[in-house]
Each structure stands twice: as C-alpha cells, then as structure tokens.
Design goal:
Length: 342
C-alpha cells in the first residue's frame, strides 16, 4: 500500500475520502495527492451488506445507510467485537430532520452485516490504518459518501421507478460535485435536504428554510454540464425502452462477486481465503433468487445478491457501447455488542 501511495504522488498521512456503492458492493478510498486534489487509491470489494437499495428509515429495518457522513477520531473503534470498526455517525443532520432512527451503523470486519458494511478483517485493518494516518497527518474529519449504486445514466434509468428515486437524485448532486472537482464537498442541510458547496452569510438549519446561498461558478458550471449530459443519456435510455431493476429483492442485501464466487467454489462451513481477505465460516451469502431475477434484466450491470468485481476507476457516463449492450440483453454477527435493532 505504501508503494501505491507513493506511485500516486500522495503522502502517507494525506487526507482521505471514502465512497460506498451498495449495488456494486464496492468501497473506494480516495486520497489527497500532492496537487491538492483527491485521486482514487484503492477499491475494496465489500464482503456483506444487508437490506435493500435505499436509505435507512428506522431502527430495526436492517438497512445500511445511504448519504453523507462525517467521521471524526471519536467514531473510530479499535476494540470492536468485529475486530475494528468505523462508526458512520448515522443518523446525521439530514436523517434526524427526516425522522430517521437507528444507531451503531458501522464499517467493520467480520464479513457479516445487520445494517452495516462488513469487510474482511484484512480489509478493515488496511482501511482503518489509512484513516488513522490521515488523522495523524492533521485531517480533522473525513467524509463517507454512501450511494445505492454508481450514479451513472444507465443506473438512473434502471432504477427510475424506485420509490427512492427523488432521494437518489439528490444524492447524485453530491456525487456530481465530487466527480467534477475531486475535492470533498461542503455538506449542509436545510429544508430537510442536502445542499453542496453552498456559500452563505446565513445559517443552515436542517428543518428550516434555506438561507440565500451561492455555489462557486466554476464548480456550479461543471456540475450543470455533467448533469445535462447525464440527463440526456438517461432520457435516451428510457425512450429506447430500458427495463427497470426490481424495486425489492427480498432484503437479502449484497456481497461482492469476488466473495460470492469464492463461497460457491469452496462451500460453507470453513474459512475461505481470498486475495481480499478471509471469509469466516459463519458468513452466509445472499440467496440467489433476487440475483437471478435481476440478472434477467441485465447482464452488463451489477446486481443485488451478486454485485460486480472490483473496479479501479471513477464512474463515468455510460458509453454508447455499454448502453447498446444493456438494451440488447433486456447471519448475522452484529457489531459493537450493540442492540440488535438497527
């Protein structure tokens, strides 16, 4: 990892940012390089997450959270019952303003989830160390951006009928801000919604009317251009009859294909060693029913129950070739000894 950091023109203690994609079951670590921008350092396959695509609404729904979360040193737990853990800080200001409840939503080891994002112990050791070094280097907090999927035109078209689509369009605004700038966005909440990189002399209150604000024109213009291109591609996909993804898939959550394949080849009941770490014998993969249903819709996009293998580049708008392929092929061990209801 140190060699990768040096090769990417980064300092070992430079700042980090984390992005999570549920459907793909991937966790990205971005790190500030010596130009002052953030670059992708590594993409980790997620071993397990629970629930459906969509935000966490209430304690006990077993949903892994989606949204923007600020991690301070106090949210790092070196004594977790799941080896090491990073508390997402759920509920944040947006969640509280919208009446969402729950607690102890983590990124942790152990490879098993009840509302968390579970990694292998080897992965969480590396992720935890990167966060610790960033704090040691002076970063006061780092951002977690948790998304239902990579916010591409293809995915927005597939999920257009979801009851969460308005929420996801709001998340996409934050996704686009990072994509165009490769800098962590300033996150505020007002009128029970997120706003990004807003500059204002007034105060932001989560449930109150937004103050007058503006966004730096270079960022605002770049975001508008990206959103215009994405909206055009999404509309084209829909007009050409792009099918929709299942709204619900049985609440089985997801597991990256890297781990799913390893389990299918080795069978249950014994530790399974992979390049991304060890899968403990108690880990149960998602049932295949949801995966098979989703596979009937598309064989080019990741699916619940059997998400994609690792990617190592940032998301970009879908290419015409990718769109053409798409259209042609239309338990758990809880963390932190916390209450079981999450």
């Amino acid at each position: 990892m140190l060699a990768d950091i040096e090769d990417k023109n980064m300092a070992p203690q430079s700042a980090i940012l984390m992005r999570i994609f549920k459907e793909e079951s991937e966790l990205e670590i971005w790190k500030e390089d010596r130009t002052g921008r953030f670059a992708l350092l590594h993409t980790y396959p997620i071993c397990r997450w629970s629930g459906e695509l969509g935000p966490k609404m209430m304690a006990g729904d077993r949903q892994a959270p989606e949204g923007f979360y600020t991690i301070t040193p106090g949210l790092m737990n070196p004594n977790s019952s799941n080896y090491l853990a990073i508390n997402t800080g759920f509920p944040n200001a947006y969640d509280r303003a919208n009446g969402r409840t729950g607690s102890f939503l983590m990124i942790h080891g152990g490879c098993s989830s009840a509302g968390c994002y579970a990694m292998t112990d080897e992965q969480i050791a590396e992720i935890y160390a990167l966060a610790r070094e960033a704090f040691s280097g002076g970063q006061k907090s780092f951002q977690i951006e948790a998304y239902p999927f990579r916010m591409t035109p293809l995915n927005m078209a597939r999920h257009r009928n979801s009851p969460h689509i308005s929420f996801w369009k709001m998340l996409k605004q934050g996704y686009d801000h990072f994509e165009v700038a490769h800098l962590p966005s300033k996150i505020d909440v007002c009128e029970k919604r997120y706003v990004f990189n807003a500059e204002s002399s007034g105060e932001f209150s989560p449930a109150e009317r937004c103050p007058v604000y503006k966004v730096a024109e270079d960022i605002a213009a770049a975001v508008r251009d990206k959103q215009r291109r994405d909206d055009f591609q999404t509309a084209e996909l829909i007009n050409r009859g792009a099918p929709v993804a299942p709204i619900r898939t049985g609440g089985q959550g997801g597991m990256n294909r890297t781990f799913l394949a390893a389990i299918s080849q080795s069978g249950p009941g014994m530790p399974i060693r992979t390049d991304s770490g060890t899968i403990p014998p108690y880990v149960r993969p998602p049932t295949t029913t949801a995966a098979e249903d989703a596979q009937s819709i598309t064989s080019t996009e990741p699916i619940l129950g059997a998400p994609s293998s690792m990617r190592t580049t940032s998301a970009v708008p879908a290419s015409s070739d990718e769109i053409g392929r798409f259209l042609s092929w239309f338990q758990p061990k809880d963390d932190e000894n916390a209450p079981a209801t999450r």
